């Protein structure tokens, strides 16, 4: 028997190893701030959802594909959205989040660039019509 095991086997314990459960319970009661004589134990319940909701942005991508398809960014975003939905159905949450993030960035880019294109076109048409009226 080595020196470390002899320290745990003392005459006070009757030659038996110490009761680790008793030590654990005393630690939990002391940790919770209750008195040592209290027998109540507090529990905490954490409800974990079975499925993590990963937005795949398919509807947004389809809208950008049909209406605001600037440089085919809407179509590419739609492809990534479908890949994200496929990964989600398989159970690969990390892959689904990666594809969804890419689809979101592409959707934002398509939306911003398309809105800028519409605004620039409207300004150009108004300025051309205004300047044509001045010279006639």
Report on the architecture of this protein.
The chain has 136 residues and is mostly helical. The protein has helices spanning 3-8, 20-32, 58-66, 73-90, 93-135.
List its traits.
65% helix, Interferon-induced transmembrane protein 3, single chain, 5 helices, palmitate, mainly alpha, elongated, 136 residues
Q: Find the structural class using helix and strand composition.
A: mainly alpha
The topology string of helices and strands comes to HHHHH
Count the E strands.
0
Secondary structure: helix percent: 55-70%
The low-pLDDT segments are: 4-9
Question: Strand share of the residues?
Answer: under 5%
- Euclidean distance between termini CA atoms: 112 Å
Question: Could you say which overall geometry the principal axes of the C-alpha atoms support?
Answer: elongated
Biggest β-sheet strands, sense, barrel: none
List the helices and strands and how they pair.
Blueprint: H1 3-8, H2 20-32, H3 58-66, H4 73-90, H5 93-135
Helix pairs in contact: 3-4, 4-5
């Amino acid at each position: 028997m080595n020196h470390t095991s002899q320290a745990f086997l003392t005459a006070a314990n009757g030659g038996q190893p110490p009761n680790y459960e008793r030590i654990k319970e005393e630690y939990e009661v002391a940790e919770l701030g209750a008195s040592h004589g209290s027998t109540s134990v507090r529990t905490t319940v954490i409800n974990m959802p079975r499925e993590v909701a990963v937005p795949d942005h398919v509807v947004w991508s389809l809208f950008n594909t049909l209406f605001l398809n600037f440089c085919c960014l809407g179509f590419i975003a739609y492809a990534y959205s479908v890949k994200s939905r496929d990964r989600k159905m398989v159970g690969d949450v990390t892959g689904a989040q990666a594809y969804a993030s890419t689809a979101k960035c592409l959707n934002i880019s398509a939306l911003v660039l398309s809105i800028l294109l519409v605004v620039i076109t409207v300004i150009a048409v108004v300025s051309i019509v205004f300047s044509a009226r001045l010279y006639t």
